[in-house]
Design a protein that fits this description.
mainly alpha; 4 helices
């Protein structure tokens, strides 16, 4: 938190509060941002970068993060003929989709692949 004292002193930066904020966003999106699920990988990238700048990568469950990222990369078993890349969001199987006919048109995206890497 930035705060200005009445004495005109420099504002103080609350490092720990910011670190907790980015650690939280790296693990799950809060309710107001859940409509941005399609940009989840990008939001994760910026949260991870902020934690790195704050020297607080220790707040991140690295194994969970890596497993989550790999879950966004299609396998040849699930998507025969797919040549790689990452989705920006968890992909539901066609039987779980509200519109299964659209499933064939779900493809990885260059921007999500860039931020995932």
């Amino acid at each position: 938190r930035l705060s200005m004292g009445g004495d005109g002193a420099e504002p103080e930066f609350d490092w720990e509060r910011h670190a907790r904020y980015f650690a939280k966003y790296a693990q799950e999106l809060p309710e107001p941002l859940q409509s941005n699920e399609v940009n989840r990988v990008t939001l994760f990238y910026f949260s991870l970068s902020a934690l790195d700048l704050l020297d607080r990568l220790d707040l991140l469950d690295k194994e969970r993060a890596v497993n989550w990222l790999y879950s966004l990369q299609p396998s040849q078993k699930d998507r025969p003929g797919c040549i790689g890349g990452f989705y920006g969001y968890p992909l539901l199987p066609p039987e779980a989709s509200e519109h299964p006919e659209c499933w064939a048109h779900q493809h990885t995206h260059i921007a999500n692949t860039y931020t995932a890497l």
